[in-house]
Design a protein that fits this description.
This protein is of the alpha/beta class. The chain is about 50% helix and about 10% strand. The protein contains 11 helices and 5 strands; from the N terminus they run ααβααβαβαβαβαααα. It has a 5-stranded parallel beta sheet with strand order 2-1-3-4-5, sandwiched between helices. The relative contact order is 0.15.
Length: about 270
């Protein structure tokens, strides 16, 4: 029998009568449980990333699908891939029920349409090389369920990220990822522990994928976009460390070639 742990009564009561320090301490106690819940899901996350990497190498994409907080987290993770790893914005795509409006404001009944998610995937001309990851804390979002069901029927790799065991969303996914974080501090408020767990898992999926695609060298973001002074400085210091050049020469190389990796490769090719 499917039980929504995410909707169960909080382990903490009388919140409105507690001091700020008591509230923060108890929230922190709950938050400490999140990393342990995610740790238990590492085997499934591993399985997913190992399947994603060869697909992306062949031109496949990663689609996050979600509603509300879950949808926003997918869009957030997708939006950070181009500046962090220098990948095109078409490689990881976040779709949220209700579209752009839903990023800032709730869109009534948007998540209840079981056909809409698949329609949006068709608009992106999805293929069997693409990976569809449904994010739903409750595990019951129709928008996500419909998208996963259709995607799997059409031969795509499907995965889910949810915070209830054996949820309907998990049943539609080839690789279900479940982070069972327990009842929320404020009963049913899945923007708290569930949202944190989902954010951690999204980080793990895309970061390890990008590392395996060669977008990181050592522990450095050598393909990051040089979109502000801080990142130009960071990139310059990477080149100084890698090649032993003075700061000014390193910065010139970086700005000339546009990324740490290209600058280092070009310098070494010229020396050879």
């Amino acid at each position: 029998m499917f039980v929504k742990i995410t909707e169960q009564t909080s382990l903490h009561d009388n919140l409105d009568q507690k001091s700020v320090a008591e509230l923060l301490t108890e929230m922190n106690e709950e938050d400490k449980k999140v990393a342990f819940a995610v740790e238990k899901a590492i085997p499934q996350i591993t399985k997913l990333v190992e399947r994603i990497v060869p697909r992306v190498m062949q031109g496949g994409r990663i689609f996050y699908m979600g509603a509300g907080t879950s949808g926003r987290l997918g869009v957030l993770d997708a939006s950070e891939i181009p500046p962090t790893f220098g990948m095109p914005p078409t490689v990881v795509i976040g779709l949220i029920a209700g579209g752009e409006t839903a990023l800032r404001n709730p869109v009534e009944n948007a998540e209840d349409n079981q056909n809409k998610g698949w329609q949006e995937l068709l608009d992106h001309k999805v293929t069997s090389l693409d990976t569809i990851i449904g994010i739903a804390a409750s595990g019951t979002t129709p928008y996500v369920i419909g998208a996963l069901r259709n995607a799997r029927e059409h031969g795509m790799l499907t995965a889910s990220i949810s915070c209830n065991p054996d949820s309907p969303v998990a049943q539609e996914a080839e690789i279900p990822i479940e982070a069972i974080v327990g009842p929320e501090f404020v009963t049913g408020s899945t923007r708290l522990k569930s949202g944190t767990a989902q954010k951690l898992i999204c980080n793990m999926i895309t970061t390890t994928t990008m590392i395996k695609l060669g977008r990181v060298k050592g522990n450095k973001m050598v393909n990051m976009q040089l979109s502000n002074k801080k990142l130009v400085d960071r990139g310059t210091r990477m080149i100084v460390e890698e090649l032993g050049l003075d700061y000014g020469t390193a910065q010139h190389l970086l700005l000339l070639h546009g990324s740490v990796k290209k600058a280092v490769d070009a310098y070494r090719a010229e020396k050879d």
